[in-house]
């Protein structure tokens, strides 16, 4: 059965050397990360962070070229970090919802076997370097049960 909320569109979208560059970028950007939600939000206490990526980055350029996009087609390109032991509870949001003519792409950079990413009550296993589409209008959640930060473009 197809999970219409999340599906992989390209295996190994990033080459091994591009993935190494992404890991280096994620490690460097980690020092300048920002909390994804402010303290007044119901998600404000989560150890969930992001760092913006400049559009001149080679991985961003590769992504734009692959889909014949202009940077004006992208709302933002970020690295999201979910710290060990952190949980984003089941929810739906329209920031990446196909019903609003928007969609969210994920490229895992660093993950671990203890990450549980659930979409429509189904566990999704995302591997580093693969390219995924996520429609966030479907219920989704994520838990990082590992000992290192999970990071995705």
Task: Summarize, please.
By secondary structure, the protein is of the alpha+beta class.
- Work out the helicity level: 10-25%
Number of strands: 12
- The share of residues in extended strands comes to 25-35%
Report the end-to-end length measured between terminal Cα atoms: 26 Å
- List unreliable stretches of 5+ residues: none
In N-to-C order, the SSE pattern is EHEEHEEEEEEEEE
Strand order of the largest sheet: 2-3-4-12-7
Largest sheet: 5 strands, antiparallel
Number of helices: 2
Mean pLDDT: 86
Radius of gyration: 15 Å
Helix and strand composition category:
alpha+beta
How would the global form be characterised?
globular
Can you walk me through this structure?
- With 153 residues, this protein is α+β, with helices and mostly antiparallel strands.
- The mean pLDDT is 86.
- The relative contact order is 0.25.
- It has two helices and twelve strands, in the order βαββαβββββββββ.
- Strand 8 and strand 9 (122-124) form a beta hairpin.
- Helix content is 16%, strand content 31%.
- A five-stranded antiparallel sheet has the order 2-3-4-12-7, covered by helices on one side. The protein has a four-stranded antiparallel sheet with strand order 5-11-8-9, with no helix packed on it. A three-stranded antiparallel sheet has the order 1-10-6, with no helix packed on it.
- The longest helix is centred in the N-terminal third of the chain and has 15 residues, at 16-30.
- It has helices at residues 16-30, 58-66; strands spanning 6-10, 34-35, 48-52, 78-82, 87-91, 104-106, 108-110, 115-119, 122-124, 131-134, 140-144, 150-152.
């Amino acid at each position: 059965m197809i999970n219409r909320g999340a599906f992989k569109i390209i295996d190994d979208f990033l080459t091994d050397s591009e993935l190494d560059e992404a890991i280096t970028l994620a490690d460097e950007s980690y020092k300048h990360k920002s909390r994804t939600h402010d303290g007044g939000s119901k998600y404000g206490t989560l150890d969930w962070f992001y760092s913006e990526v400049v559009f001149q980055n080679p991985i961003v350029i590769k992504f734009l070229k692959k889909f014949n996009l202009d940077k004006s087609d992208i709302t933002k390109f970020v690295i999201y970090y979910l710290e060990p032991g952190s949980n984003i509870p089941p929810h739906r949001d329209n920031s990446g919802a196909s019903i609003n003519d928007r969609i969210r792409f994920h490229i895992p950079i660093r993950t671990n076997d203890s990450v549980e990413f659930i979409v429509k009550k189904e566990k999704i296993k995302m591997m580093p370097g693969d390219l995924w589409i996520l429609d966030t209008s479907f219920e989704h959640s994520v838990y990082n049960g590992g000992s290192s930060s999970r990071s995705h473009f």
